[in-house]
Amino acid sequence: MWVLFIVLLLLILILLSRSKKYSWEDFSNRFGNCTGEMGVYDLTEKTIESTYPSKKIIDTYDTIFKTKIPKDTTYMLKIAKSNAMGCELDILNYVKPITDKYKNSNILLRIQTNPWRYAPHFDSFDQTAYMLSGTKKWILWNADFKSKDEALSFRDDVNNLNFEQMKVYLTNKGISYETKIMKPHDSLFIKGGVWHYVENVNTTRGCIMLNLHGYNWSRELDYNFGDLWPEQSERCKNNQFY
Fold it and tell me: Could you tell me the sign of the dihedral formed by the alpha carbons of 163, 167, 169, 173, in that order?
């Protein structure tokens, strides 16, 4: 009787110790030895147009998964289906049971350490964000501008605001918004043209998220995007997503 109890207890402990599929630990165990390019971001730097890395390095993925990152610095590994190779393809095949559920023109997988934030922006296509690991908080809103200069002024006003500052700014401008918290296996549909701002919630070492791009790309939105973020627009056209 006692032998059976001990065996059952050991089985339970083994099951509990296993990393959950798609968790930070699971990705580290499976792909930590892979080598690839990642962006390094200094969050104390002012954002001029959009969120760009301070530099890029090539190292093992465990640089992200296991290395202690300095304060106010973030590392991000970004994998795009449109130009993935080697281990990147292995990772995309690993998450295929999820991505196959969504019609998509491209897939971006982001692995980011904490803290993380991305400058407010909109995209020229519908997309679905899907969380694999960690927690993110979002602000989403619509904005109409009378001129390009007004849109540029808005972009510059909000570029370096954090989550709470964004809420205050939008409230003072009379712009209605909604907030979302995303945890593992939550999905969020973001319509093209909808402005959004996102931060990691610092409850784990980092976040892993999928961006699944839709097919209904808008020429008008793409033109407006290029006006506000010309450097990023050129990067995207050349399949450079950092």
Answer: positive
